[in-house]
User: What shape does this take?
Amino acid sequence: MTPWMRKIHKWIGLLIGLQLVLWMSSGFMMSFLDAEKVRGREFRAAPAAKKPWPADALPVSGIVAKSAPVQSISTGWLLDRAVYRLKEEKASRLVDARTGQRVELDAALAQRLAVASYHGPGTPKVAELVERSLETRAHEGKVWRVDFSDAEETTVYLSQHGDVLEHRNSTWRLFDIFWMLHIMDYSGRQDFNNALVVSAAVGGFWLALSGFWLLFTSFSLAEFIPKRWRGTRSLMVHAPDGSRLRSLRAHTGDTVYVAMAQQGLQLPSNCGGGQSCGLCEVRVRGSAPPATSADRALLPAAKIEAGCRLACNLALDRNLDIEVRGGAEPRTRTS
Assistant: This one.
């Protein structure tokens, strides 16, 4: 089970690690961007002073009496025009507070409202009524869009009632990409509890548990006993042709890989004795100990039957004679 657990742990760790890199780098970039530009405040005009409601405005009762059943009514201003905003069951509309006439928000009026909310150097383009997009994802329905020709490529969005909804610009758009990577919501860019985030959280939790389990299983009981209390075992190392390479004494419980490395003989390995590469193969002369799960995962059945084992997983619980099939290079010591 351990070799498979190592592989799964490695690949899930890679995926979680990549997401952590994206999370940290996107967080850094978001903190680096100008917050005022991200919020759309750079070229946004200050709200106009509140105007007194005109004395000659028609009473609400008269407006309601001439319309379909109204769910709610509010007052407001479209530039210098006082209006009532009526919300009906299926639609909403604007009514001039002085004349009682319906007010249609067309492209020309939308452009004027956008210009009134903007104090930058750009000039406005023609207003367009557009469908909801990522830039207006917090609002429902169609909106008016007015682009300005400034360095930040500012866009002003207005509701069909004339309310200024958003000021978007190139800095916000860059921020929004990093935000998408940060919260892993690649479609709506606003859901903190999307399936990818939950999966990453579960994967990270499993990674921690499996890492703890792999760490625990990598220790042997002998490693918790001081070496002076463990005694020693003999290890006879032979070359493939049968000639003796070295006669060693090592502490009981040490692996063959560690015992040889401590005596200056380095077996081939890409994992440093981590039971994952299968290169430190040796053959036990005489009766070989039972094969472990790592042996079975990395060595062919025929070799296991012939007494081959992984040196990194072969403990010196008794005196052993082994044959180093892949050779053993003397380890160079550096001063």
The CA atoms of residues 24 and 253 lie 43 Å apart.
